[in-house]
Structures are given as structure tokens and as C-alpha cells.
Design a protein that fits this description.
There is one protein chain. Among the domains are: 49 residues; 47 residues; 105 residues. Strand 4 and strand 5 form a beta hairpin. It is mainly alpha-helical. The chain is globular and about 85 Å long. The chain has a five-stranded mixed β-sheet with strand order 2-1-3-5-4, sandwiched between helices. 62% of the residues lie in helices and 4% in strands. The protein is built from 29 helices and five strands.
């Protein structure tokens, strides 16, 4: 008990030191070293003291090879026949695409090949409805309550919180809107915006079909995927560790501000959903010999590869799983060779014609990776200027420091979320560190090895090896393992406290779950307030102008009085399509060549470089018209002006 308390004091003490550091302070490095040492010491002490080898092996722990394995008749007539149909159709679709390009026949053959792949496993599916017995039903009820809270906090003011819309989300919206409104002219085996495959826009494509082509339909994809990720992390925690770990991890994701900010917007959370369930079903298939799970995992793995770039980490994570089995469970893997083959076959069939696109345009597939890779000469030069370091070793040292402390200290550097906080809140971050310490002492257990490697690979590829870490757009794939590791630590503390309190009687034992719930509620309230504070106020005029125009009568049309900003910028096109007619240069105003195009006609002057000159000349030209002043992010900050012409 004393050692555990000391580990907690050390971890939370290290976290408390970090906010008192100011970048540029000559003692910054010393303070970071002190805080890091305290976090590491607390984590190692916690892991050394709390290791408990008597835990019963969870469902997805790989047992010795001598343990009997579920039968799987992979060579049955039904399975072989339908697999043959799937392979033939996939080959035909891919070859026809390579020779003649995309056509309805190609798309149809590819879709039927995936359907045949799923049908091949139908006879092996056995549905067994079992009554959930106490105390398991309590966990199911608690998960339902967690999901209700998550849903409420994700849909609240979904289209106006955050009020600002980053250009990347507007571009995603425009790409997806085109797929919804004109699917007949779109090719699905091709790259879309930012060299993301068209199928990478599948989640918002579906929700825009259901909920409209505006912000509600766009952001609904993040809400739905966010809820499903919580379920997936619960399943991983339950079957890799313990049902209580799964529930705590689900709750931690629900109250996480990083998950909150990602699940209220699209795109960057897409690969997380596919990654979580691809890994879960792969483990179910390998451990229990479930062909349907392996096929499902293969399909989800392919879709994960075609989402936002961070989804490509799945190759390294699944590769790590197979290497782990090869080194530590080789007899088991040898008996399950068919499972790996079936999974790989599902991946190739689902890729289908898109494999031709990747091979023909490998540069397009790797363009973003090369653009942000730390050893790219342009990126290296940028980092040298940013860190004020000359040598490569010094730059890499700074990269390592920013990556290691991104969970505790360094804030999001990306423009998409612009969330000026570390990846984990100060109450959860020390638990994550303690979870790492515990996992290090239990690394031979598969669940701990998986979450550790997932965290290390994600931080290495998405942080250390890329420009300007930590960029949250590349790091959302770390949401599941960080929640699981923090839940492992919190669960161990729960068990210790429960054993200590239960001696006082059954009623006293209720104190521990009550304290746990209060802790999670406190974290949730704190993080929600942080989110509203950071994302509920700021708005750029790129967003405030189209939001204003979208509220005007349908007959209203507007000119943008600016030579530097185009009226066809993505934010304008997505949030207020068709409302801005054209740019109106000042010389055209001076010449009197203004043609009203609607009733009323609006002249919108954004707060860019020449705003004062623009407003003064418009007032001279229209002496009877007053300018509407629209305030920005403060009482003295003007976002834009509007002249309303008769």
C-alpha cells in the first residue's frame, strides 16, 4: 500500500511540475528532466509492486499450443466453392479495371466478390444467445450509460461547436458532397482530395446520405464512429485484460477531450474505428479459429488503409502481432496457418482494383508520407529553424522530447483541431504512465505487449518521424491504447482499494466504485469545460462570413470585396454554396460597374490586409449606406463588414 501511494505521488508530482515550465526558460530542460524522472520512477515502482501473476488468462490470451483448438473445416465444399467465386470475381474485376478502367461491371464484380467472401464463412457462424449473469449484466448496463453520456456530449450543438470550420474539414465536406450529389460521375477506384482514396470518404458519404450534405451530415460520421470506438475499446479491454478494464477504458475515452474533439468532426477519427475492430476481429479469429472474424478483419484492414494516412499504421501493428506469435507462439501459429492465409486473402480481395491504382501511382500513395518525413531535406530545414538547432542529432533529440512529453506537456501543433492542450488531461496522463510501468513488468502477456507496441509504434511513426510533433491529426490512432493502459492502472488501484475496504463490511465496499465514478465524472466535467472554453469562442472570418451568409434570405447574393481572398475558397463553398457570386475589386467599384444580382445585394469586406481602405472607399461610394460591423473573437476585433445595397 505504501509503495503504491508513493508511485502515485511520484507520477502526479511529475505531472504537476510540467505545467510550471515555460518554453524558453533556461531551466526548461532541467525541469523536464525532473518531471520525466518522477513519472518514470512512479511508473516502474507501480509496475514492480502491483504485478499479479495469478490473474486468470483473458479470452484473447494465446494459450500453449497443446491446448485444444476449435475446429475449422477450411477445406469444406461450401467454403472452398464460395472462396473460389470470390477469388475469380476479384481477379476479373481487377484485370478488367487494369485494361479498360472503371465501369459498373468492375464495381459490381468487386462488390459481389466481397459478398461471396462473407458467404463462404456463413456455415461456420454459430449464434448462441446466453443470458448475461450477474455481475456481468452490471457492466453491460454501465456501458450503456457510458454510451448515452457519450452520445449526449457528441451531438450537443454539433454544427456550431466548434463554431470555426478548418479548411481541411471544408474540403472533406466538398469532396463528400460531390459523391452524394453526383455519384454517377465519380470513380471509387481513384484518389480524392489530398491523395486519400475515394473509399476513404465512405463514413461521411454514408452520413451525408442520411443526414444531409451540410455540417450535420458531415460531423455525424465522427459521432457514430466515436461511439463505436468506445464499444470496440470496451471489447478489447474486456477480452485482453478484464471486463472492468474494458469498462474503465470506455469511460476514459468518453471523458477524454482528445476523443471528444475528434468524434465531433470527420476524417481524422475514421481510421481509429477501422483499426480497433480490425485488430479485435483478427485476434478473435486467430485465438478461436473463427473464419468469419478473420474475413471481417481483412475487410476492415483494407478500409483502414484507405482512410486518412494515419490508418496505414495498421500494417505495422498487425505485422507486430504476427511477429509476436512467430517468436513466442510458433507452434500455435503453425497450426493456424490457414487463419493468416484467409485474412490475407480477404485483404487482397477487398483491395481489388484499388491495388492497381496503388501500384500505378505509388508516388501518390506515398506523397504525404514523404512530405512530412523528418529526413525530408525541406522538413529537416524547417525543424532546424523551429528548434533553433543545427545538427541532425540535436533535431532528433528535440523530436524525441516533444514525442515523449506529448501526453503530458506539449500541445497540439496541427491547425485542424488547434487544441492547445496535451494529448491527455493532467488527471489521466499519470495513470497512463503508471499503466505503461505495469505493462512493462507483464510484457509476456499478450494484451500488455499489444498495447505497449501499439503506443510505441504510433508515437514513433505519428510523432518522432514526422514534422512538428505532436500533430493530433496523426495521433488519434493512439486513443485506444492510451485509454487501455490508463484503465489498467486505474483497475489495479481499484482492486487494491477494494481489498482494503471490504474488510469493513459489504456496505463499505461500495465506497470504492463510488469514488471511481466520482473521479471519472470530475475528469469529464473538467475536460468538457476545457473543450467548450477552447473551441466555443474562436472563429476566423473564413467561417464567420459564410455562416452569416447562410442565415440570409435565399434571394440574397453577395460580392466579396477582396483581391487577396477568393469567393470560391472551400469554407465559402461548403458552408454557403452559391451565396458569394464573385470577387469585386475596388477599381470596379470606383468605375461604378456594380450590378445587383439579388435582393438584397451584399458587399462583404473581410478583415484582411486592406480592410480599412476598402471600407473607407465603399463609404465614399455609397454615402447613404452604413456598414454593418461584425465582431470577431473580442470586443475590439472586427471579423468583417457588410454593405447592404438596395
Amino acid at each position: 500500500m505504501a509503495g503504491t501511494v508513493l508511485s502515485l505521488v511520484s507520477a502526479y508530482g511529475g505531472q504537476a511540475v510540467l505545467p510550471r515550465i515555460n518554453e524558453g526558460d533556461p531551466r526548461e530542460g532541467l525541469k523536464q528532466a525532473l518531471a520525466g524522472s518522477m513519472l518514470i520512477a512512479g511508473a516502474l515502482l507501480f509496475g514492480a509492486l502491483r504485478r499479479d501473476a495469478s490473474d486468470a488468462p483473458p479470452r484473447l490470451e494465446f494459450p500453449p499450443a497443446r491446448v485444444s483448438q476449435p475446429a475449422f473445416v477450411w477445406h469444406g465444399r461450401w467454403t472452398v466453392a464460395w472462396l473460389a467465386v470470390a477469388i475469380v470475381l476479384a481477379v476479373v474485376a481487377t484485370r478488367h479495371f487494369a485494361v479498360h478502367g472503371e465501369s459498373p461491371a468492375v464495381v459490381g464484380s468487386w462488390l459481389i466478390s466481397i459478398l461471396a467472401l462473407l458467404v463462404s464463412q456463413l456455415r461456420a457462424v454459430r449464434f448462441k444467445w446466453q443470458r448475461v449473469a450477474p455481475p456481468q449484466h452490471l457492466y453491460v448496463m454501465a456501458l450503456a450509460a457510458v454510451l448515452v453520456i457519450a452520445l449526449c456530449t457528441r451531438v450537443y450543438k454539433l454544427t456550431t461547436l466548434p463554431y470555426d470550420v478548418d479548411v481541411d474539414f471544408a474540403l472533406v465536406g466538398l469532396q463528400t458532397r460531390a459523391l452524394v450529389t453526383a455519384p454517377q460521375v465519380q470513380h471509387i477506384f481513384a484518389y480524392g482530395w489530398a491523395q486519400i482514396p475515394i473509399l476513404g470518404y465512405l463514413p461521411p458519404w454514408v452520413t451525408m446520405e442520411l443526414f444531409g450534405t451540410g455540417l450535420a451530415g458531415l460531423n455525424a460520421s465522427g459521432v457514430i464512429e466515436g461511439l463505436l470506438i468506445i464499444v470496440g475499446v470496451y471489447l478489447l479491454g474486456r477480452d485482453l485484460f478484464h471486463v472492468r478494464v474494458g469498462l474503465i477504458a470506455a469511460a476514459l475515452l468518453t471523458v477524454s477531450y482528445a476523443h471528444l474533439v475528434a468524434s465531433r468532426q470527420p476524417t481524422y477519427i475514421d481510421p481509429v474505428f477501422f483499426l480497433v475492430f480490425a485488430i479485435y476481429f483478427l485476434l478473435v479469429g486467430l485465438c478461436e479459429g473463427r473464419g468469419w472474424a478473420l474475413v471481417t478483419s481483412g475487410i476492415l484492414t483494407t478500409l483502414c488503409l484507405e482512410m486518412y494516412y494515419s490508418g496505414r499504421i495498421i500494417v505495422f501493428i498487425i505485422g507486430g502481432i504476427l511477429l509476436c506469435l512467430l517468436f513466442f507462439h510458433r507452434p500455435w501459429l503453425g497450426r493456424r496457418w490457414w487463419a493468416v492465409l484467409l485474412w490475407a486473402l480477404a485483404v487482397l480481395i477487398t483491395l481489388g482494383p484499388m491495388l492497381v491504382v496503388f501500384i500505378r501511382d505509388i508516388d501518390g500513395f506515398l506523397v504525404r508520407t514523404r512530405a512530412v518525413f523528418i529526413l525530408n531535406p525541406a522538413i529537416l530545414k524547417h525543424e532546424q529553424i523551429l528548434y533553433q538547432r543545427e545538427s541532425l542529432s540535436a533535431v532528433l533529440l528535440e523530436q524525441a522530447r516533444h514525442t515523449a512529453l506529448m501526453f503530458h506537456y506539449y500541445i497540439d501543433t496541427g491547425t485542424q483541431f488547434s487544441f492547445r492542450r496535451p494529448f491527455l488531461d493532467p488527471l489521466t496522463a499519470p495513470l497512463f504512465a503508471l499503466g505503461i510501468g505495469y505493462a512493462l513488468f507483464c510484457w509476456r502477456r499478450f494484451g500488455y505487449a499489444l498495447t505497449l507496441s501499439w503506443t510505441i509504434i504510433g508515437a514513433l511513426i505519428g510523432g518522432f518521424l514526422t514534422a512538428d510533433p505532436p500533430n493530433w491529426g496523426r495521433l488519434m490512432i493512439l486513443l485506444p491504447p492510451t485509454a487501455l493502459l490508463a484503465a489498467v492502472a486505474l483497475n489495479r488501484l481499484y482492486e487494491l482499494a477494494h481489498r482494503s475496504v471490504e474488510r469493513l463490511g459489504s456496505r463499505a465496499a461500495l465506497i470504492v466504485p463510488a469514488v471511481l465514478i466520482l473521479f471519472l465524472l470530475a475528469v469529464g466535467v473538467r475536460n468538457w469545460n476545457t473543450y467548450v472554453e477552447l473551441k466555443g469562442r474562436y472563429v476566423s472570418w473564413h467561417t464567420s462570413i459564410p455562416r452569416y451568409l447562410a442565415e440570409q434570405p435565399p434571394s440574397a447574393r453577395a460580392y466579396l470585396v477582396s483581391a487577396d481572398v477568393s469567393c470560391h475558397d472551400p469554407e465559402f463553398e461548403f458552408l454557403a454554396p452559391g451565396r458569394l457570386v464573385a470577387n469585386l475589386p475596388l477599381d470596379q467599384i470606383d468605375g461604378g460597374d456594380i450590378v445587383p444580382v439579388g435582393s438584397p445585394t451584399l458587399l462583404v469586406v473581410p478583415a484582411d490586409g486592406g480592410v480599412r481602405e476598402h471600407v473607407q472607399r465603399l463609404r465614399q461610394h455609397f454615402p447613404g449606406q452604413s456598414a454593418e460591423t461584425h465582431i470577431g473573437n473580442g470586443p475590439n476585433d472586427v471579423s468583417f463588414y457588410v454593405f447592404r445595397l438596395p
